[in-house]
Write a structure and sequence with these properties.
Chain lengths: ~750, ~750
């Protein structure tokens, strides 16, 4: 026993060499080291605060900097979300026409001054002119229709071209939804620039363009990325967060909550989303702070009032009709549909993305986007349900009495474009419903197909809205079906007692909402957060039960085909080192089976605590690619002393060679506390105890892998040393574990690309 | 390297000896071992399920047993909560009078058949007679008042006597709120019988009695205990949960959510309460299941409909008036009040409880309860605000226009009991408000004092309602003050612009709610869950901001005086080994400073993997009190092999002596894989590798304590071995850490009683 107290600092390298303790790009951080660093920093500030008033003030400001940062993140994200909403609204309307008072007004704003009172009429105020009116002077007839059609395609192509070009030119990280990468980053991975200012600027602009182009994508997922960018940039204002990767990830977790909060106007749901779906390390302090930030963001957005109705989202809805227990059957049916769709979508999308990666398709992202945008525009315009934006569609489907109101204007191109459109305007109302139904059915098929190829293109693209739209259409269809069934068969035993003839006993809007939740659940495998987000959209506790039944069914059904959600699937596709915190490791292997070196490998590369020269160490580092090296007492005993990281070793030796006198290749490298006695003519030793981790994690070779995986997950380790009866035997890294898991699941272990 | 694969089972003890792997009462469980055991079990079921249909069905039923259990817990807890509500309502009313149609009706039910229509009148229907009416024939005059008064005291004494006697006679664990103990149990402690059937039965009955007796306590905290008892009892139906302490704790975490869900009608708040306040290990699966159980319970309670208004709680409220930014100042003031009250209450209550423990006061719990009940009844009756139950009081204070309606009936005893009550009935309305105000002020002082001595008595007693009541009174007082201020000074610059003369610009009910949240927050230090519970009570997102401002202030203010909430303070008072997961360990000690043996202690008691006899092992175990012993290669090398628990050692040796032939004191104890060669006449060796933990956790002596504490918390360890350069140096247990923390905080380290 050597009771020598803290020995970390008995070292000439007391001032840390710049760079020691930082990480390279595409590497995993060491959570334990980062958190320990932060505690050291905090301790220092606390100790100093007792000495002077200035230091005390510094300590107080340090304590509150987290809250201030949260406030700023909330304000900035809320403002950006408001801006994106307004801009997207305006550009989307521009595809249909232009405001004569000023082109910067959107359709609704343009018509506010109009005298017509009914909503339907106000929609066609004289100040707003469709492109056909503007160009041909009339809005009737086949020619006008074709002009509008062409203009719609033109704008769609222009917007999507701008979006993809900007992304490619300035910020390649701005594409996609960003959630898979954010999950990976939050789990402790470094992707430099992914949350930088260029990504933020370009993502904000191109998100507006992509949404407006009419592609089958939403802005909700990317808003999480935008909020995380804001948080990351604002972190640079505070040393505490700038310098510590773990602390910064706490802020990013909160920012993810902020993103969902502004996307759905659901602060509580946002916090739960961050907790359930994206975060890795989520202490209670973060819970409370994310809630604060999510609220600030929601209220900022509300004060911007992008939709002019003091609601945070387009598809807020209030139901008043109760639901009956019998209806649980169709709700569960919707859950099954959602689960099946989720499983199918993930497979199809991943297959498509893999194809894009492996074939020549991946070399022409701009052309791909343009082709998909053209296809979307050509097919979407004739059907009023696909022509409107996803959020508008969802809002209509959630609402109770809008299905017929809006569907008697346009009909599906393929069948009717060459007929005079006007003759269809006064068809009987009974027929109207059927038209609406098959339009919806076509919209469903179209959305399903186009979403598969859209998600993953090189433009910002969220999945929430397309998934919800698909579910909402399916739900609405089922709801209308149920309504008809109840209407014509209200004396059936299942309707008897709660559905009197003529009464409005089925709420198709609720079915749409349940369907939306089911599909979103199937695709993302969210559970609590999804139900709470939906609950915050409706505001009625009693609708939780249908939502819950559908979400639960959907998750079970989807899980039966594969346990990964779309985000995990994309993480795996990209080969990021992500250790899923949700799933249990169920295999019975032992750590000795997974660690390196394997039996056929050369022996483990180790450093000895004394006796090696600078040259030998350099040669060892050069000849291997490991990220770190265990330090042992001697090669014979293999008793473990500590662990030194490759990067720290290289930087320190490099620095010593430049700055420290007498350090040459023959100098001894010493990791012990006291330098060993040397020959008098030997060069001075290089003491590197300061960069060695004196508390490396170890497990025994007999530790079952499930426990080892648990340790890696819970402590956020990067590597762990393996011992047998006190002797160092090997090393196990996160990558080894992931490769082992891939092997068990019959996947290619080399698909794990990063450390 | 010895690539010998899994070796755990190469042992004659393949069938585990009964008792090995279980725990003694008042001991800490090993989370890692329990979870690993469950994974083994799950693996076995999965493997078997491929063999036959029966096994497959078993596997499916096993997978769904968790959900079934949750459903049962929800149903049972919801039903019990409904029963408690109804019974408490009835008994509380009985203190005032009796229903002539049938004594089992409460006041409201009794008057349902009455013809009078207004609520005020219906309250005095002829079927319901106060005790004075029944006995003296009249309800007017001082004599009737005194009769009612005496009957009120009589019932209060009777109920509290019954409550305390039942608790003492049948289930001593039924007293208190139960939350501190549940927190400790969830963190991995064993208290046998704390969640047993007797505790459940007695707690349910005595909770009703205690609440009805008028003592200053609530049923909300104990409902968490009741729900946990239900869960624990229902766990016995499923092997998966009966046999595994870790799995059972997952269910208990969900049950805590259920308890709050039925107590406040707030399922989401309940889940967050469990997550934030009571749970220790809360995986996402539990989140989802608790949400399900909380919902089931809420809907069960709603279908029982205990309050006859389809609300789950008495004090549900809907505000419609908006609040103004200026009002944040009084809200923050309420937060400061709440924080101060919280800090003060914790100190006073802990001092009082310590006094009870250390003086003769603790020997007479029945007399104590009777005295406090008498005191409460005598002082509470004359003031209408204290006479009603806590929940009713809160409901009145939260509501917008009931302050004057209900206060013109009774006046404070000390001043007016000897005056004819009737002459005060028709005083001017302006005076009425002032009377109400000072009655409220007196009620505030009374509640504050009586709650301090009530919480901790030997009856079931929750803190939520009294704390909320105190805050609600303070808030209401401030709200009325603000209202008057705005009324008389609506041209002040702070009121200008948003408070026109005559308009109702201040909502005193909102102030009451904010005050309630602030005081509850100060006492319990809840944050998110508190805000969400309150949000679910009001249903309006916009009131979150005032609630949040007050809760945040309250927490900060209270934390400035001590970081412990009331539950943590009671845990510490009882000496339970609870490692607070929220607080960071900020001290700079190293593990070597905390581990045992200290420098002056005798060397660490270790077993060697071979060479010790049964007699020597028994002697070592007898001569020490440690819960476990490290196994090393040899005393000289001190290289660690594994860890054996005292209980397992004793049971195994005992079992071997009885059942295994030839095991005597001279038999060698062998922990190695292969028995060493022995003299031919030596007794057969006792092989104990099966009970040895081959993967004990180790840290190095240089590991900073903050990291060690983190490891203990995150992995739920009971002990960890300490090594230096690969050699075993010592051991560190949860108790050592807690003692060290107590020492740093200048507390008595011997106050940690259990392992």
């Amino acid at each position: 026993m050597n009771g020598n107290g803290p020995t970390k600092l008995v070292d000439p390298l007391e001032d840390p060499v710049p760079g020691v303790g930082t990480y390279e790009d595409f590497n995993t951080i060491d959570w334990v080291r980062e958190k320990s660093k932060d505690r050291d920093r905090h301790r220092e500030i606390t100790n100093k605060s007792r000495q002077s008033t200035v230091a005390l003030l510094h300590s107080v400001s340090d304590a509150f900097s987290g809250w201030l940062l949260m406030l700023l993140v909330g304000l900035m994200s809320g403002a950006l979300a408001g801006g994106i909403d307004i801009a997207a609204h305006w550009l989307t309307d521009m595809k249909g026409g232009v405001c004569l008072i000023g082109f910067w007004f959107n359709h609704e704003h343009c018509c506010w001054t109009s005298n017509e009172t009914t909503f339907q009429e106000r929609d066609r105020c004289p100040q707003w002119q469709s492109w056909a009116e503007l160009i041909t002077g009339t809005s009737e007839g086949a020619f006008a229709y074709i002009v509008n059609y062409l203009m719609y395609i033109f704008w769609a192509l222009l917007f999507s071209f701008l979006a993809v070009t900007l992304v490619r030119a300035f910020a390649p990280y701005a594409c996609g939804s960003g959630i898979p990468e954010i999950k990976t980053i939050l789990s402790g991975f470094i992707i430099r620039g992914y949350l930088g200012k260029w990504t933020l600027i370009i993502k904000t602009i191109t998100l507006v363009l992509a949404v407006s182009s009419g592609l089958s994508l939403g802005k909700e997922g990317p808003l999480v990325h935008v909020a995380c960018c804001c948080a990351n940039i604002l972190c640079h204002l505070f040393t505490k967060y700038r310098k510590n990767e773990a602390k910064r990830r706490e802020v990013l977790s909160a920012a993810a909550a902020v993103g969902v909060s502004v996307a759905f106007g659901a602060p509580i749901g946002g916090v739960l989303f961050s907790l359930e779906e994206v975060s890795y390390y989520f202490p209670l302090k973060t819970l409370w702070r994310s809630f604060f930030a999510a609220l600030v963001a929601a209220f900022t957005l509300r004060s911007i009032n992008p939709f002019g109705n003091s609601r945070l989202v387009l598809f807020y809805v209030e139901f008043h009709a109760p639901w009956h227990l019998v209806e649980l059957a169709p709700f569960i049916l919707l859950g099954i549909f959602g689960g099946l769709w989720g499983a199918l979508f993930i497979r199809a999308n991943i297959a498509w993305c893999r194809r894009r990666k492996s074939t020549r398709l991946g070399h022409y992202p701009v052309i791909e986007v343009l082709v998909v945008a053209a296809l979307t525009a050509v097919l979407a315009f004739p059907n009023s349900y696909t022509r409107m934006s996803g959020a508008e569609l969802i809002s209509e489907l959630f609402n109770d009495c809008s299905l017929l109101d809006s569907s008697h204007n346009f009909i599906y191109f393929v069948f009717f474009v060459f007929l005079p459109v006007s003759i269809l305007a006064d068809r009987p109302a009974g027929k109207g419903l059927y038209t609406a139904l098959w339009q919806l059915a076509l919209a469903l098929v179209f959305k399903m197909l186009i979403t598969v190829i859209t998600f993953g293109m090189k433009v910002p693209s969220g999945l929430f809205i397309p998934s919800m739209a698909i579910g909402a259409i399916a739900g609405r269809l089922l709801g209308v079906g149920m309504e008809q069934l109840a209407y014509y068969n209200h004396d059936w035993f299942i309707f008897k007692g709660w559905c009197s003839p003529g009464a409005d006993c089925i709420t198709p809007g609720l079915y749409a909402m349940v369907g939306a939740a089911a599909c979103l659940g199937g695709v993302t495998r969210m559970t609590v957060s999804l139900v709470v987000i939906m609950f915050e959209l409706t505001g009625g506790l009693e609708y939780i039960v249908p939502l819950m039944a559908a979400t639960m069914t959907s998750k079970w059904v989807a899980d039966a085909f594969g346990r990964e959600g779309i985000y995990e699937a994309h993480i795996r596709l990209n080969g990021y080192p992500f250790l899923e915190p949700k799933e249990e490791f169920e295999h019975s292997s032992l750590t000795v089976d997974v660690m390196r070196p394997r039996r056929s490998d050369p022996a483990l590369a180790v450093l000895t605590q004394e006796g090696m020269t600078v040259g030998e160490v350099e040669a060892l580092v050069e000849s291997t690619h490991y990220s770190g090296f265990p330090v042992v007492v001697s090669k014979e005993s293999q008793r473990l002393v500590g662990f030194a990281l490759r990067r720290d070793l290289l930087i320190s030796i490099d620095n010593a060679r430049k700055r420290q006198e007498g350090i040459v290749s023959a100098s001894q490298v010493v990791f012990t506390e006291h330098a060993p006695s040397q020959a008098p003519d030997a060069p001075p030793p290089l003491r590197l105890r300061g960069i060695m981790d004196l508390s490396p994690f170890t497990v025994t070779d007999h530790t079952p892998m499930d426990i080892t995986v648990d340790i890696f997950r819970k402590l956020g380790l990067r590597q762990c040393l393996v011992t047998h009866n006190g002797r160092l035997l090997g090393i196990i890294t996160k990558k080894d574990i992931l490769k082992h898991m891939a092997q068990i699941a019959n996947r290619d272990p080399d698909s794990i690309l990063f450390n």
